[in-house]
Specification:
The structure is a single chain. By secondary structure, the chain is α/β, with parallel strands linked by helices. The protein is built from 16 helices and 14 strands. The chain has helices spanning about 25-35, 85-95, 120-130, 145-150, 160-175, 185-190, 205-210, 220-225, 245-250, 270-280, 295-300, 325-330, 345-350, 360-370, 375-390, 395-405; strands at about 5-10, 40-45, 60-65, 70-75, 110-115, 135-140, 175-180, 200, 230-235, 260-265, 285-290, 305-310, 335-340, 350-355. The termini are close together. InterPro entries: Glyco_trans_1 (IPR001296), Glyco_trans_4-like_N (IPR028098), Glycosyltransferase_grp1 (IPR050194). Pfam families: Glyco_transf_4 (PF13439), Glycos_transf_1 (PF00534). This is Glycosyltransferase family 4 protein.
Length: about 400
C-alpha cells in the first residue's frame, strides 16, 4: 500500500452517475479514495455528453460524493458535438484550470490530465510545475490522428498542427503516459515518446454497481420478443458502431422466425436504422428506448447473444476500448464481435465469435453457429467472458494498478 497522496484527475468530460454515465474516472477515483488517497476529479459543468448537467452559479463548485471531491468548472453551453463553441471550450477549460489552486485546499502530489482534446495538458502542466507534482497524460482517443483518419482533416491544417504540437509535447514532457487503447504505445513511440513511460489501463466495471442491478420495467419486458433466440445490442446507436451491418444480417435471416434482433438505446443513427428496417420490411428487429445503466445487466440476461460491431478503419490498429465490452462479458452472454482491428479481446478470451467488420453475411453465419451450439458450449463461451472480465476489468483491481503507476 502506497502512502496516501493527493491526486487531481482532470477530465473535461467526466461525469457522475447522476449527471451522466459515471464512467472511467468516476469509478477509478472512487476506488483510489477507498485506498486512502485524497482524490479531486475535475470536470466541466457542461458538455454535450452530460445527461443532466448541474446548474451551478459560482465559477467552481465542489460536490462531495462517494469519498471523492468532484470539482465542477463552470463552462458555457453549446448545441452539440459539432458546435464550434465546443472547440472554444477546450481552451477556456484549460485556462480555468489555472485558478484551481485558489479553489482546492489540498496541493496535488499527482496531476493526471485526460484527453481526447490534448489542450487540457497545457493547464495541467502549469499546475504540476507549480506544485512540483508528478504529471500524467492519458489518451482515450488518439487526437489529432483520429480527426485526420476518420474526420478527413488534413494533417497540414493549422489547427491540426497546433493539436499535434500539444500532443507531442505531452508525450515528451509527461512523467507517465496512460491509455485505455492497448496498442497506443506504437503511435506514441512514433511521436517521440519513450515506450517505458507507457501503461495500459482498460475501461472496466464497478462491482458495487453491478451487484445492485435493477429489474426491467413491465413495459420493457413486454416489448421484448418472446420464445426467440435474441441477439441484442445495448448502448449508443452511433456511426462508429456500424449497426447497419447488424440490420443487414437481420435481413439475411428474416425467414428464420426463431431469431430476433434487439437494439436498446438511442443515438444519432437511430432514425437512419429505423428507416433501414422499414425499407427492408423487417419484422425481426425491435428497437427499445434507453434504459437505466442499473438495468443493463437485467437486459443482457434476456439476450442469447450480444452484438458489438465496428467500422473497418485503420485507426483500430491501436485497439479499442468500448465500455460495453466489460458489461457484455460480465453478463456471461456469448458475444458476436464484428471487428478487424488489433487486440480482439473477445477472440483472446474465447468469449464468443469474432467476424470481420462490415460483413453482414459473416454476422448472420455467426448467429446461426451460436444458435446451433449446445447449452454447455454456449455456457462455456459466456463463462470465459465473465472470467476474463473479473480478472481484467474490475475497477478495484484497475485502481490498484493505477495507484502503483501514479505513485511509483
Amino acid at each position: 500500500m502506497n502512502k496516501p497522496k493527493t491526486i487531481w484527475i482532470i477530465n473535461q468530460y467526466a461525469s457522475t452517475p447522476a449527471t451522466g454515465m459515471g464512467g472511467r474516472h468516476f469509478y477509478l477515483a472512487k476506488e483510489l479514495a477507498k485506498q486512502g488517497h485524497q482524490v479531486y476529479l475535475i470536470a466541466s459543468s457542461y458538455t454535450h455528453l452530460l445527461r443532466s448537467p448541474l446548474e451551478i452559479t459560482d465559477s467552481y463548485f465542489i460536490e462531495e460524493l462517494d469519498g471523492i471531491s468532484f470539482v465542477w468548472v463552470k463552462m458555457p453551453q453549446y448545441e452539440d458535438a459539432h458546435d464550434k463553441k465546443r472547440v472554444l471550450n477546450w481552451f477556456i477549460f484549460a485556462w480555468r484550470l489555472l485558478k484551481l489552486p485558489k479553489v482546492i485546499k489540498d496541493k496535488p502530489d499527482v496531476v493526471l490530465a485526460s484527453s481526447p482534446a490534448p489542450f487540457v495538458f497545457l493547464g495541467a502542466q502549469r499546475l504540476a510545475k507549480k506544485f512540483h507534482a508528478r504529471l500524467v497524460f492519458e489518451v482515450r482517443d488518439i487526437w489529432p490522428l483520429t480527426l485526420i483518419e476518420l474526420g478527413g482533416y488534413s494533417s497540414k491544417h493549422p489547427f491540426i498542427r497546433l493539436m499535434q504540437w500539444v500532443e507531442d509535447k505531452a508525450y515528451r514532457e509527461s512523467d507517465t503516459v496512460l491509455s485505455n487503447l492497448p496498442n497506443a504505445v506504437r503511435h506514441m513511440e512514433s511521436r517521440g515518446m519513450k515506450p517505458e513511460k507507457f501503461s495500459w489501463i482498460p475501461n472496466g466495471f464497478d462491482t458495487e454497481e453491478f451487484s445492485n442491478t435493477e429489474p426491467l420495467s413491465e413495459e420493457t419486458l413486454q416489448a421484448l420478443p418472446q420464445d426467440k433466440f435474441i441477439v441484442g445490442y445495448t448502448g449508443t446507436l452511433g456511426v462508429a458502431n456500424a449497426l447497419e451491418n447488424f440490420i443487414d444480417a437481420a435481413e439475411l435471416l428474416k425467414k428464420n422466425d426463431k431469431i430476433a434482433f434487439v437494439l436498446v438505446g438511442k443515438g444519432k443513427e437511430k432514425k437512419t436504422l429505423q428507416t433501414q428496417v422499414n425499407r427492408l420490411k423487417l419484422k425481426n428487429v425491435t428497437f427499445i428506448d434507453s434504459i437505466r445503466k442499473s438495468q443493463v445487466q437485467s437486459m443482457l440476461e434476456k439476450f442469447d447473444a450480444c452484438f458489438i460491431g465496428w467500422k473497418k478503419e485503420a485507426i483500430y490498429r491501436y485497439g479499442i476500448a468500448p465500455n460495453k465490452l466489460p458489461e457484455y462479458m460480465l453478463s456471461a452472454t456469448p458475444i458476436i464481435h464484428a471487428y478487424s482491428g488489433a487486440c480482439d479481446f473477445v477472440k483472446e478470451a474465447e468469449a464468443g465469435i469474432s467476424v470481420p467488420a462490415e460483413n453482414p453475411q459473416a454476422i448472420a453465419e455467426a448467429i446461426l453457429a451460436l444458435k446451433q451450439m449446445s447449452f454447455e458450449e454456449i455456457s462455456q463461451l459466456g463463462q470465459n467472458g465473465r472470467n476474463h472480465a473479473l480478472e481484467n476489468y474490475d475497477y478495484t483491481k484497475l485502481a490498484e494498478k493505477l495507484s502503483g503507476i501514479l505513485l511509483d
